[in-house]
Design brief:
The chain has 189 residues and is of the alpha/beta class. The chain has one domain (6-181): Rossmann fold, CATH 3.40.50. 32% of the residues lie in helices and 21% in strands. It has four helices and six strands. It has a six-stranded parallel beta sheet. Helix 1 (26-45) crosses helix 2 (56-73). The longest helix has 20 residues, at 26-45.
């Protein structure tokens, strides 16, 4: 089966709708930050920063909310937000991943509301790879992915469902994946 990240599931299923700003779920923010803090508590206390990496409006809202929630838990945590610009975003004052050189020793936490096609997360991974000069290979991993979808070891098994390759490709680039547990209505999956 190959590499499988460590999954951290929320304590309950959180149904996220689009657009996130209209269908805001604070529980998603709280559960994600709880997982981030519990995973990297010692690093944070030793001065390692947490860098949220996002793309698009939903991602930026989520990253900002998570940064704020993390500061509610530990007001001294060093935190940053990096934005991966969309190709159509021609902002003259800020390029994609601007500020990445200032984060120092950090944990990269890629955040989004959910994965539909996978294009957003793949674009974030590609931008980070290019910026950091990392060869795009499953052995090169980022620290954590936070999404609301249900994913588990079973969903990454060959032929478990039609999109398993997409999920496996994305998840293989992270040490941890924070996500929802299986919804109760799908216990037979």
């Amino acid at each position: 089966m190959g590499y499988v990240p460590k999954f951290i599931h929320f304590d309950h299923f959180i149904d996220i709708g689009y657009p996130f700003g209209v269908h805001w779920k604070h529980s998603y923010i709280q559960q994600s930050v709880k997982a981030i803090f519990n995973t990297y508590k010692e690093d944070i206390e030793e001065g390692t920063s947490i860098t949220f990496v996002a793309r698009g409006t939903s991602g930026a809202m989520i990253a900002g909310a998570m940064l704020n929630e993390l500061h509610n838990i530990n007001p001294y945590a060093k935190t940053y937000i990096l934005i991966v610009r969309k190709d159509s975003d021609t902002s003259a004052h800020c390029s994609s991943l601007r500020g990445i050189d200032e984060v120092g020793t950090t944990r990269f936490i890629v955040v989004d509301d959910f994965i539909a096609s996978g294009e957003t997360i793949e674009a974030v991974i590609q931008a980070l790879d290019e910026q950091l000069g990392i060869f795009p290979h499953p052995t090169n991993k980022y620290d954590m992915l936070c999404i609301s979808n249900f994913i588990s070891v079973e969903t990454l098994k060959k032929d478990s469902y039609s999109g398993y390759r997409k999920w496996k490709g994305i998840c293989s680039r992270f040490e941890y994946v924070v996500c929802c547990p299986k919804p109760e209505q799908y216990d037979s999956i």
